[in-house]
Amino acid sequence: MNRCLPVLLQRNSPFNVVGAGLLIVAATYGLSRYTYGLFVPAIRQDFTLDQATVGAIGSASYLGYLLATLVSPFLVRRFGARLPILLGGATATLGMSLIGLANNPIWLALGVTLAGCSPGLAYPPLSDAIKQLCSAEKQSRYYAIINSGTSFGVMVSGPLALFAGPRWQLAWLCFAFIALIATLWNLFIMPGHASEADDQERAGKERTDDTRTGHEPMRVLLRRKLKDRAVCRLLLGALLFGLVTSVYWTFSVDLIAGEDDLPDAGRVMFWMVVGIAGVAGGLAGELVTRFGLAKVLQWASLAIAAAIAILTIASGDMLVLALSAVVFGAMFILITALYGIWSVTCFPEAPSAGFGLTFFLISAGQLISPTLAGVGAKLWDMAGVFQVTAVLCLGLLLLLPAQDIRSM
């Protein structure tokens, strides 16, 4: 016990780096952002909302994220990684508290939007924090494990939803408490500004790259990078990935509840399976090292398209529902990690900027998609929307990296 204590108190110990990073991702992504879909049937019933309105509120979450991703990289450059991570934890705590206390759709939408801001603030700086706290050979592995925090958040949401039962808003207050704990842990762990030597080294790199000085380099960097075909593939793929996956996150529970008349426990178990399976996404770093990013992304894209498609033919078959949940959960976390690793290789001089831009575009797709899906469900039905989404998902195969990427 006495030997373990110094390790626990070290900021850059694996327990603290991975633990604090994983918990903040679980709170901001897994709970604040993606758990909304689990409660869509209860929200529709209690607030008397149609699918289009529920989709619009879901889009509000992604709008919050979209705006936050614009701010986060600038906060990192000005204040270091700690401040935006803590702001992300604080907005998660406040937003989910508002959802838990909302008594009308306006307060609900405000809470959902605020909670949606949290991962946009907290997630991009994690790449900088990992680079400051970890040795180079551990960065890909630690990042992939931390990225799987989304799955742990989704996994935890299920039991809490069952515990809350009809008082579903109580679950959101529990989520807010988890976000508070994550914020306090990261206050202790995450670094602020890089050291003066690191600042000088970064400044030296910026001076040797074109004519960038001061805070202007961000614009110059982005303008230069957008001329790179590899970067364009990355960004277009990220946009399409967000577009197709948010349909599943927002409406999968509503689809199986409406068509298969599953009891509440069955829906929650489906959601928990999605979360549990996502833990497998933590193997992204190992898979990239062994097989290369392009090959892993190719097979993962095919698998997630299949997961979306087979949900429409489940017809109450729990094995088929479980198969869809397992494949989607694992592939979603895996692919987000792949895009994170790819973004760092494309933006080695500004990792948080590459992260921020990549996940900004993922969120841009996620912002549009729930509203379109809600409208599409009125024109056809939700099963038809999922089938079209699965076909669109195959477009990711046209946007694979051309180069062989095997590390972060």
| Number of E-state strands | 0
Report the structural category.
Answer: mainly alpha
SS summary, helix count: 19
- Beta fraction: under 5%
Helix content: over 70%
Major sheet: none
Outline the structure in words.
The chain has 19 helices and no strands. The protein has helices at residues 4-9, 14-31, 40-47, 51-79, 82-101, 105-122, 124-133, 136-147, 149-164, 168-189, 196-208, 217-225, 229-260, 264-278, 284-291, 293-310, 318-346, 351-379, 382-393. Residues 195-216 have low confidence and may be disordered.
What's this entry about, in short?
The protein has 19 helices and no strands.
Task: Indicate the topology.
Elements: H1 4-9, H2 14-31, H3 40-47, H4 51-79, H5 82-101, H6 105-122, H7 124-133, H8 136-147, H9 149-164, H10 168-189, H11 196-208, H12 217-225, H13 229-260, H14 264-278, H15 284-291, H16 293-310, H17 318-346, H18 351-379, H19 382-393
Helix pairs in contact: 2-6, 2-8, 2-9, 2-10, 4-6, 4-18, 5-6, 5-10, 7-8, 7-18, 8-17, 9-10, 9-14, 13-17, 13-18, 13-19, 14-17, 15-16, 16-17, 16-19, 17-18, 18-19
Question: What tags apply to this protein structure?
Answer:
single chain, 408 residues, mainly alpha, 19 helices, 0% strand
